[in-house]
Amino acid sequence: MPIATAVDVAVDSYLRHVAVERGLAANTVAAYRRDLGLYTAWLGADFVESPSRPITDLRAVTRQHISAFVQHLGLRAEFPLTAASIARVLSTVRGFHRFLLDEGLVEADVAHDTKPPKLALRLPKAISIEQVTALLAATDGDDVQRLRDKALLELLYATGARVSEVVNLNVDDVLVEVFDSVRLTGKGDKQRIVPVGSFARTAVSDYLVRARPVLSARGRSTPALFLGLRGHRVSRQNAWLIIRAAAERAGITVPVSPHTLRHSFATHLLAGGADVRVVQELLGHSSVATTQIYTLVTADTLRDMYTTAHPRAR
């Protein structure tokens, strides 16, 4: 069994810190582990573009090393990373070096001033209200599978939830009988209460009464809200397949995923006049800047409508 180096020990300490003290989700911690694996492997390799020989002491890392690492990610011969992926890895590395400084393991935060590559503006892909209506109509039916699919898709669009938030719901998280809402657990185990509209409430109620008991009897007892045909909790992959099948039945030719419904939820709310900070709370975004990208989508829609409708717009 290989002996852990000082770098390995520091990485493990940081991952415990973000998992326990900051309460980050397991998937986020796993992503941090992969990012730092790239970083520490690069530090320890005998590579041509290194400003110095391989590094085993984190106190020897300089700003030049961080910059060279960022360049390496985009230029490496095998699987060069996109600008967005490089920015994510650099964010992890910067957090790691802040931790090292706070713990007194290094004397300076050498990663603080390193800038990520500029990202191309990527607008969220939403579908129209008419397409959403067709998608939801494609789940109509009285069998247990269609009742479940209808409830799942209606709830995704009604709440703008991430697919992981919906498939992780338990029956007790559904508060429609009292508050007409649902309790979602987002990133970092942060909980929020999101209202549920009448269509989703009806679909979920029908599913709970007519379909879930049948599905539950096929497997072991579980608190999960949405169950597969064998009685187990529906997975994210299952949810993706359910939506893709509904999109095909609805004749929607553009790609549709669970996140499409989240984007559509935000875009349609803002187009309908909702305040961006309200949408931020509903989506569970920690920063309003993340939500404001949707305002660009609605601005494009308004511009198109103006150009089409105004007699002197063209």
TrEMBL record:
Domain of life: Bacteria
GO cellular component, one term: cytoplasm
Ranges where the Tyr recombinase domain occurs: 122-307
Molecular function terms from GO: DNA binding; tyrosine-based site-specific recombinase activity
InterPro entries: CB, DNA_brk_join_enz, Integrase-like_cat_sf, Integrase_catalytic, Integrase_recombinase_N, Integrase_SAM-like_N, Recomb_XerD, Tyrosine_recombinase_XerC/XerD
Chief place where the protein resides: cytoplasm
A Pfam entry, by short name: Phage_integrase
UniProt name for this protein: Tyrosine recombinase XerD
Originating organism: Cryobacterium glaciale
Species lineage: Bacteria, Bacillati, Actinomycetota, Actinomycetes, Micrococcales
Gene: xerD
